[in-house]
Amino acid sequence: MKLYGIANCDTVKKARAWLAQNDITVEFHDYKKLGLDAATAAAWLQQVDWQTLINRKGLTWRGLDEARKLQIVDNASALALMLEKTSVIKRPVLVRDATLLHIGFDAESYSKIFTL
Q1: Interval 36-57: pLDDT, tens
Q2: Which of 6, 53, 98, 116 could form a disulfide with 111 if both were Cys (CB 3.0 to 4.6 A apart)?
Q3: Residues in Cβ contact with 94 at an 8 Å cutoff, skipping those fewer than 6 apart
Q4: 36 close to 4: Cβ distance less than 8 angstroms
Q5: What is d(CA 94, CA 81) in angstroms, rounded to the nearest whole number?
Q6: For 2-113, which CATH superfamily applies?
Q7: Domain map (residue ranges) of the chain
Q8: Candidate list 3, 9, 54, 82, residue with the active-site label
Q9: Which helix (H) or strand (E) holds 103?
């Protein structure tokens, strides 16, 4: 199981703390430091709509000029943006065997995923 995100993100910190408190081991992939490969991001986009993966409330999205925002209209354009600016991806992204389990963090949802 792998948790994707950015180490200094508060939501990622909460998810990692919850996982540790519940003795659930995950590999953490900091895509700010390690990047994100196109195949992984494309696989996510096959499982959920691009609007679910792109954090349009975050600083990265808000920092884009309007013309760039208007270019993001489908999975292909979202993929290019996700690879260019990984911090635009909602986080954390919890994955098991290439299957998206959850985007973001919610203790109740995590409890259901791990049947606690």
Answers
A1: 999 999 999 999 999 999 999 9
A2: 116
A3: 1, 2, 3, 4, 15, 26, 100, 101, 102, 103, 110, 113
A4: yes
A5: 20
A6: Glutaredoxin (3.40.30.10)
A7: 2-113
A8: 9
A9: strand 99-103
CA–CA separation, 89 and 5 (whole Å):
8
Partners of residue 84 on adjacent β-strands: none
31 carries an active-site annotation: no
Contact of 53 with 90, CB cutoff 8 Å? yes
Q: Which residue has the tokens 């096959």?
A: 46
pTM: predicted TM-score of the whole model, two decimal places: 0.92
Q: What is the chain's mean pLDDT, rounded?
A: 95
Q: SS3 of 101, please?
A: strand
> Which residue, among 12, 9, 16, 82, has the nearest Cα to 48 in the 3D structure?
82
Handedness of CA 108, 31, 98, 19 (dihedral sign): negative
Q: DSSP H helical segments within the chain, as ranges?
A: 10-21, 38-47, 50-53, 59-62, 66-71, 75-84, 107-113
| DSSP class of 33 | T
